[in-house]
Write a structure and sequence with these properties.
Helices cover 42% and strands 16% of the residues. It has 428 residues and is α/β, with parallel strands linked by helices. Helix 2 crosses helix 3, helix 5 crosses helix 13 and helix 7 crosses helix 12. It starts with a helix and ends with a helix. It binds pyridoxal-5'-phosphate (PLP).
């Protein structure tokens, strides 16, 4: 099965044969097949959807041909499905690389490498300015790497994790690949709902992942009120590992209301991917002392540390006033395009969400059809199903504004409107 998934013979969504049938074909006991399926499920390769049987997950964690991971959009399509930052708005790294090349040499070896003190000092003051108690911090290879390390350090396969639904597809895949069980917490524009979190924790979730700003896909940001409500829910579960993902960081454009410290084990991740570039692969992880020690200690036995060269590069970007100006301009540009798209969609009678970040989330009655009709009209958008934990009666599409220019917003809103209205006109 794994070989079939790797080669693409068993593509995402492909059904696996029923246990008894396969057992008969192979001449083994059903218990053997069931055990093999369990192992595939614990590693996130397949999922079981009740009476729909067992299927290959949308993005199983085995690397096949790189191109197979994500189908390229057909030539000529305006691709608004990516979730990538706008490359036109990322700072130019070259002057900073040059600065590193001409600065004093610093060769870090196995013994002295680790969190680079200067980056740590800058990160501490930036986080403290946002109210994050960043006494102990470390550095990981991006936010998702940090989340993986945190979950692996605190949880065991089979444990439950509360995640936002809809939520970031990669996180849902990671949770499955770690053999953890995702428990859905509904999200509205102010973040995860307090009731949803309470239910997930009462149901035994041992960790919760909250996207504090620029929630993917909805653009939600935790408001001051919601933050207070979530804190009071968490107060009854002090042993829960609380992970906050601030992946959009300086691009978010709304104040941070952090849950840091609401539980004994907490971690706050701030990535540099969206404001400065995803290829930097760096996030700062502030956490309670025991959590930082666990993550760092385990990291030392494997990857070791995040390259000091990258840490110095990020510090150079953070110290540069011109870069700060570019990041502020990028934030305004996303804000302008996102709010314009929401406004245009609302004016056409559609609902649209996008308080922060680079995406707009548009509830639609039949997302498969809307995605297909938009394709015909020349746009690739992401189907809402990618971001949901299970089947949902509510459809939606996610539109990334990064590739959109101002002049393209009205025509796109017309196309989305036509795609939704077409359905009503056909009465299906
Ligand atoms: C919610 C969320 N967290 C984290 C990331 C990625 O962070 P990193 O590149 O630091 O792993 C993304 C990327 O889209 C995201 O949507």
């Amino acid at each position: 099965m794994e070989a079939g998934i790797r080669t693409g013979e068993l593509p995402p969504g492909a059904p696996l044969p029923p246990v008894r049938k396969l057992a008969a074909t192979l001449g083994v006991s059903p218990a053997t097949v069931a055990s093999a399926y369990r192992s595939l499920r614990q590693r996130g390769l397949v999922e079981t959807a009740g009476r729909h049987g067992t299927r290959v997950r949308p993005r199983p964690p085995v690397a096949g041909a790189r191109a197979a991971r994500r189908l390229p959009p057909a030539a000529g399509l305006h691709d608004l499905s990516t979730g990538e930052p706008d490359p036109r708005l990322l700072p130019d790294l070259r002057p900073h690389l040059r600065r590193l090349a001409t600065g004093p040499p610093s060769v870090a070896g196995y013994r002295d490498a680790g969190t680079w003190p200067e980056l740590a000092a800058l990160a501490r003051s930036r986080l403290a300015a946002d109210g994050v108690p960043a006494t102990t911090i470390t550095v990981t290879n991006g936010a998702l790497d940090g989340i993986e390390r945190l979950l692996a350090a605190h949880l065991r396969p089979g444990d439950r994790v509360a995640v936002e639904d809809p939520g970031w597809a990669n996180l849902l895949d990671l949770v499955a690949a770690l053999g953890l069980e995702a428990v859905a917490v509904p999200v509205d524009d102010e973040g995860p709902t307090a009731d949803g979190l309470r239910r997930a924790l009462a149901g035994g979730a041992r960790a919760a992942v909250v996207t504090v700003r620029a929630q993917n896909p909805t653009g939600a940001a935790v408001s001051a009120d919601r933050c207070a409500q979530l804190r009071s829910v968490l107060a009854a579960y002090p042993r829960v590992l609380l992970i906050e993902d601030d992946h959009a960081a300086e691009l978010s454009g709304v104040p941070l209301h952090t849950l840091a410290g609401a539980t004994t084990a907490w971690a706050f991740l701030r990535s540099v991917s969206k404001p400065y570039g995803p290829d930097l692969r760096l996030a700062v992880l502030a956490a309670d002392e025991a959590t930082v020690a666990r993550v760092e200690g385990r990291m030392r036995l494997g990857a070791g540390w995040t390259s000091t060269l990258l840490q110095r590069l990020v510090a150079s970007l953070w110290r540069d006033r011109e870069v700060a100006g570019q990041v502020a301009a990028a934030r305004e540009s996303y804000e302008r395009r996102r709010t314009a798209l929401c406004r245009e969609l609302t004016a056409r009678g559609l609902a649209a969400h996008g308080r922060t970040g680079i995406n707009v989330w548009v509830p639609v009655p039949d997302e498969t059809r809307v995605v297909a009709v938009l394709r015909e009209a020349g746009y690739a958008v992401a189907p809402g199903a990618l971001y949901r934990l299970g089947p949902s009666p509510e459809g939606a599409v996610r539109i990334t504004v990064s590739p959109l220019d101002d002049a393209g917003i009205g025509p796109l809103a017309d196309a989305v409107h036509a795609a939704v209205r077409g359905r009503a006109a056909h009465g299906v």
